Amino acid sequence: EFHEEFQQPNRDLSQGAKAVAYQDSQTNPDWSRISETNSGYALSLVRKYLVEVAPYTADPYVNVSQYYRETYVSNPPVGPERRPWKYPREQDDTNFMETGRWLDDDFFSAMRLAGLCPLSTARIGSRALPVTTALRMLNTRFDWNQAVRRVSGLSFRQALLRKRLYMEYFPSLENIDVEANARVQTYANRTYDLPLAVFVLPRREELFRVVAIQIGTDKDSSTVYSPTTSSFFWWNYAKLYVGNAGVLASQLQYHFHDAHMTGLRFSIASRRQLPSSHPLRLLMDYHTSNVREVTTKGLVSFVGPDGYLKDFFTIGLNGQGPALRHAYQAWSYEKMDLEKEIRMRGVQNLPYHPYYHDSQKYINILHQYVEEYLKLYYCCDSQVQEDQALQSWAGYIANDIFGGQKGLPESINSLSELADYVTNQVW
To answer: Which of 194, 183, 230, 233 shows the shortest CA–CA distance to 211?
Structure first.
């Protein structure tokens, strides 16, 4: 029924009509009547940001993606935003398996920031990866100075001081015991060896380059592979091992926990705390309409004793629980804000970071959409503060859903704060 409304002509709301709705909401917040008054304009916003940017399809986000690609791929940016390639998986030689591009070290480096798990890389020395943490894990017997100098001309210390050293690191997979399963017998009854991929950004280059890959976090006994000291087979084995860890982290942490489980919590909070006609309820229901069903099915079909991920993932059944617990312990409200997450990882100044640069444009579109929608119902900060349903919703999420431990705001005091909060949830 909602999608059918897209076919209706725009019913823009005059400033006078909106002002009446705002005044009424201050004294008598009858959301059902106000929502009905503003519904035409709200739908025109949805059409503006999610539909009219490209021919209509069943999934509005497909339109945003198509619009973005047509705009930025056909007219690629120049200057500071220029990058070696914007979409490594969509070059002319898209079948990189047959062409052998997957064996290229630069392709491997690019996929750390444009591939399956683009939020697993951090600068050594950032808040997400302090120097002490990195040095605690790196093998002291390996000549890191020579390896870094071979790629960049800098010593390890020089690259560190100049903020040019990076590492792909998967803390959610650390110290996980792997159990035997029917399909992956070779991974039976041992601890999963966490891979550490070290990169350096050479001067006057846009893409950082891989220095070496360490399998395991024991600084005395872990094996380190590099392009010069390892055979062709073992060097590519190490890169595939990193790719495998990226699959585990992206699916269990970033996909299932951070997207599905976290989205489920927000969806439940909206259903429990907001009246069915409240504008936030309408907005959140539209963006989380299938979260509950899909996540509930996922718990049965994907994870757990009867799920098939235990056969496909190298950490097996026993590894899924610890990985998800680590993901929950590491999650915070700060991670919902992509800009804060990127800065916490210290990768905001990388010349080549397609996931970050491209996502900024998506988020700006969503923020404009959410902000204009909210301004239909709230004209000032005081109206946000006086909306008891909204404040109860925020407090319920922070204290009841997340136990007051994840840094979520217990109250929302301004319209701009509300727009940022809702945009992060929608994103």
So the answer is: 230
Q: What are the backbone dihedrals phi and psi of residue 64, each rounded to the nearest 5 degrees, phi first?
A: -60, -45
Residue indicated by tokens 């990193």 = 242
Residue 68 is predicted with a pLDDT of 46
Pick from 310, 307, 299: which is nearest to 260 by CA?
299
What six digits make up the tokens of 388? Answer: 């008891």
Determine the Cα–Cα distance for residues 363 and 339; give it in Å rounded to an integer.
10
- Nearest residue to 113 via CA among 75, 151, 85: 85
* Residues near 119 by beta carbon (within 8 Å), at least 6 away in sequence: 254, 341, 345, 355
What does residue 264 show for φ and ψ, rounded to 5 degrees? Answer: -60, -40
Angle at CA 183, nearest 5°, toward 178 and 185? Answer: 50
Give the highest mean pLDDT range of 107-121, 126-140, 353-367. 126-140
The two tokens of residue 272 are 């429990």
Q: What is the pTM of this model?
A: 0.76
With 80 as the cut, is the pLDDT of residue 57 above it?
Answer: no
How far is Cα 294 from Cα 309, in angstroms, rounded to an integer?
16
Tokens 């986000």 identify what position? Answer: 61
Contact (Cβ atoms closer than 8 angstroms) between residue 172 and residue 323: yes
Query: What gap in Å lies between CA 5 and CA 62, rounded to an integer?
Result: 18
65-79, 220-234, 394-408: segment of lowest average pLDDT: 65-79
- Burial bucket for residue 2 (CB in 10 Å: 0-12, 13-18, 19+): exposed
